[in-house]
Give the backbone structure.
Amino acid sequence: MEPANRKFDVVVIGGGPGGYVAAIRCAQLGLSTACIEGWLNESGKPALGGTCLNVGCIPSKALLDSSHHYSFIRHEAAEHGINAPGATVDVNRMLARKNRIVQGFTQGVAGLLRKNKVEWLQGFGKLLPDRQVEVTPVAQESTQPYTVAAAHIIIATGSVPARIPPAPVDNELIVDSTGALAFTDVPRRLGIIGAGVIGLELGSVWNRLGSKVVVLEALTEFLPTADRQIAGEAEKILRNQGLDIRLGAKVTGTASNNREVTVNLESPEGKQQLAVDRLIVAVGRRPNTARLGAADVGLKLDESGFVDVDDNCRTNLPGVFAIGDVVRGPMLAHKASEEGIAVAERIAGRHGHMNYGNIPWVIYTWPEIAWAGRTEQELKAAGVEYRAGAFPFAASGRAKAMGETGGQVKILSDSNTDRILGVHILGPNASELIAEAVLAMEFEGSAEDIALTIHAHPTLAEAMHEAALGVDHRSLHI
Ligand code: FAD
Ligand code: NAD
């Protein structure tokens, strides 16, 4: 039966990690569910997975891993007694690998929707009154819009790269994160505007592959949302790797011919010009409500353009929820997915659990930066009395064996109750190590709980154990 004029229990608008996960959970809970998604991939084929799978988390991590291997061969292999002189990079092969991984996952999501009997409506959805949605099909014979109705709607339309007037993206020399995942050669000189997550991750990729990378950051503080001590140590390590990070640099204009981009900037040293072969604009992302028709149905947006929601992701329209990057909170795939699951549970009349105070952050530089909970500066500002325990990877047997001794684990716990308030890691595989901290915090655990937990030897996780012992001044190996 054609989807037109049909009614579903739930219609999800957007098939990223927020939307497709919400749709699967709704279907698992017995709700008839459709997911509207109009993303077209490079071959013009409809694709699920949103920003995360197509042009975000997965392709960036594929390139981070490939470039990490190359960097290891060039700079560290010899130390291990491995001689690999003359290693070269085949960028097109690297990109082809990345694209295969992306394609595998996006097709996999289509399979998951089929398995769970979620109908994928290939097109863009626009809200109509009374929980109806107009779908404009993409890549199909008929692009004639049709209407579906729903008892509940979940908006999961995500976000798009933010733009700044002095550096208009031309998708040739000046690109956003999507363009920066698809350079077909290694730019000799690469400029990046924004020393945030994307600037540091993609800056690391191209720096490792041989670009001379300059990162221009408007703020005078490096990674202000991270713990100060961890951010300071990370900044030093990244600078040593060759990232030329310039803080307090305001880009005032750009001029490009077909060979290079001239960037005009004002920095603490005065007015400057920088010539680069490519420029990446990575200054944040903004909510994507462009095709929703919010104003026509009276869907309330906040002053920054996010869909306005309460703590349970309810919008001002009855039966209409919103999740993920298009609403307040961190723009992270796991946050979007967990909100999707929580909303599905609520629609099915169950309890939807979402702990906004315990969302892990990871920056996939090397070493990686990961944290959960509150930073030392936040605790100080709030007047909370805390104790800190830290352990450097330089003293970890496993880290030493790996040759990965930069960074530390730091645990902050309440002075009175010992409850863990924050965990901050700079180090190898910090992205994996942080999971133990998140679990401990979810159970409202104490530093002593981690200290009493047996950690396998030799592992990087022992650094977590030692940091927990350190909270009580009884670290053993330092
Ligand atoms: P999106 O993934 O943006 O999906 C929204 C979907 O809605 C899109 O597919 C879009 O086509 C569709 N859509 C929009 N409007 C309509 C409409 N009207 N009708 C139908 N469909 C519509 N996060 C992490 O947690 N870890 C990482 O390592 C990480 N790396 C990243 C790297 C990069 C380069 C980028 C850009 C982002 C990264 N992120 C990462 C962020 C992550 O991608 C987002 O937080 C996540 O994708 C948000 O999920 P979402 O479902 O809310 O939105
Ligand atoms: P971001 O907010 O992390 O960093 C943007 C940086 O650009 C900030 O430091 C900001 O001060 C700076 N900036 C803004 N305007 C500027 C200007 N005019 N000149 C110079 N600097 C300027 O944003 P992002 O790096 O673009 O990433 C967007 C979002 O995507 C992130 O917030 C994150 O939620 C998500 N993301 C997550 C991951 C991950 O989880 N590992 C990876 C990539 C992206």
User: Anything to note?
Assistant: The chain has three domains: 7-55+96-161+286-354, 174-283, 360-471. The domain at 360-471 is CATH 3.30.390.30 (Enolase-like; domain 1). The chain has 14 helices and 21 strands. Residues 164, 193-199, 201, 216-219, 250-251, 282-285, 330-332, 362-364 surround nicotinamide-adenine-dinucleotide (ligand 2) (CB under 6 Å).
